[in-house]
Specification:
Layout: E1 2-7, E2 13-18, H1 24-30, E3 50-53, H2 58-61, H3 66-72, E4 82-84, E5 97-100
Parallel strand pairs: 1-5
Antiparallel strand pairs: 1-2, 3-4, 3-5
Length: about 110
């Protein structure tokens, strides 16, 4: 299991044991993290699972692909470290990953 931390907008930390191959979004939903709406169910067809990747993890997580970038255009308060959590696949390389949920979703 890979440990990831999702920090809700109110500062509440959700320390999650995530299965490799799943997504950050799936784990956030499974653990009832507020603010992750995931209206499209992880199909990269909305921007309601938007998160900010902690800056020390941005290189490891990588850049969004073209389709995700297009969807991020609809997200609220996009930052250079914005990603859609449905597009971040959990792997051993992400052990310790920290992401933050924005104030609201688009």
């Amino acid at each position: 299991m890979t440990k990831i931390t999702v920090i809700a907008f109110d500062g509440t930390r959700y320390d999650i044991d995530a299965e490799n191959g799943s997504t950050v979004m799936e784990n956030a939903i499974k653990h009832s993290v507020p603010g992750i709406e995931a209206e499209c169910g992880g199909a990269c067809a909305c921007a309601t699972c938007h998160v900010y990747v902690d800056e020390k993890w941005t290189d490891t997580v990588g850049e969004p692909e073209a389709m995700e970038e297009d969807m991020l255009d609809f997200a609220y308060d996009v930052q250079p470290n914005s990603r859609l959590s449905c597009q971040i696949k959990v792997s051993d390389a992400l052990d310790g990953l920290v992401v933050r949920v924005p104030e609201r979703q688009a």
